Sequence to fold (80 residues):
Amino acid sequence: MVAVHVLQELSLNLNWLYATGVPDRINLFEVGEDRLGSYSRVDLSLNYSIQGIKRNWVIQAGVYNLTNRNNPWYRDWILT
Fold:
């Protein structure tokens, strides 16, 4: 995670998550261990802090999966 304070009240956060693929449950009983593809995601958030007299406020906006990558996470059995 990278956090950059643009101004005292404004910060920009960038988070990158990478994980190797999980075991493929559909081919679980076959010889050899197959894995799904790797998982990679980039999240971006912007925080703005407001100092009030009685309360402190934070306005936050974020984008989940900024690169819009279609990650393989799991597969389920579907009867056909």
The mean pLDDT is 83. The longest strand covers residues 39-51.
